[in-house]
Design goal:
By secondary structure, the protein is α/β, with parallel strands linked by helices. It has two domains: about 5-235, Alpha-Beta Complex (Spore Coat Polysaccharide Biosynthesis Protein SpsA, Chain A), CATH 3.90.550.10; about 240-315, no CATH class. Helices cover about 40% and strands about 20% of the residues. It contains ten helices and twelve strands. Helix 1 (about 30-40) runs parallel beside helix 2.
Amino acid sequence: MSQKITIECVSPGLEAARIETVVTLPTFRRPDHLLKTLSSLARQRNAGPFAVIVMENDAEGQEGLQAARPLFEDGTMAGLVLIAHERGNCSAYNAGWQTALADFPNMRHLLVIDDDETADENWVATMIAAADGLGADIVGGPQVPCFEAGAKMALSRHPVFVPHYRETRVVPILFSSGNVLIRRHVLEAMGAPFLDTAFNFIGGGDSDFYSRCKERGFRFGWCAEACVYESVPARRTEFSWLNARGLRNGAISAMIESRRGRGALAGWKRVAKSLALLAASPWRSLVLAWGTGSPLIGIYHLQVALGRLFAEFGQVNEQYRRPEQN
């Protein structure tokens, strides 16, 4: 079912038919950082013509829309700003991706950046070159954490802040949408809604999407040189946030597996896997704690295993339901 989308402003003289690259940028109550993100996109080098779609996901407050509108109306940014009226991370992505396909008929590459990130000045060009060089349908890149004042830097080695891959190469799958390129034919093949809105307030809609893409035979790549820089508030280095994130990551894993395998037998296999991971987690956590020198980092594997098990009984932490705590 399609959601309600309102296009609020379009940059003057936008020649949609000339655009082969579209950057989608969801935003929710971060107007100041949204301007930083847009500024980094305005400074892109060697990228050729590209358009930006800002997806405002706060239909009531519209702070992002009000911040971005002048930049599009005066032509500083090429593209458009829309309101995705259905709240939630996945709904915002779906609105932008659906609009990109419909309004830019010759789009070849869709890129994603979040409103708490800024892009390296060669980001767009580097991602496109990596996709072509690797022959990949979907390419991810590192989200380099930039810790704000008061953050506990001893926790910067926590798995939630460390990229899954370190070298530019073909990879088996991706895990985040905060820095990604998706070729048009992938979106056309997968069809809208692209991200399952059941993950709207949990996160993990991107991981579920990649899992389905992998089943369809699409090829993934990683570009270590295409960096975006993610602002990390101090609260994300507190135990409460890290614990919630670990439990959430485990729950997402179980939810995705439950969608891939139906029936009682698949359910029992999934529960058995969760129990096995829980049994192994103390030892894995001990190794991680020893390697990082931090017991707080070490318990991540235990948190993930517990999150998987809790999800089997319907206990899932909707970490994005309270944005002020995220």
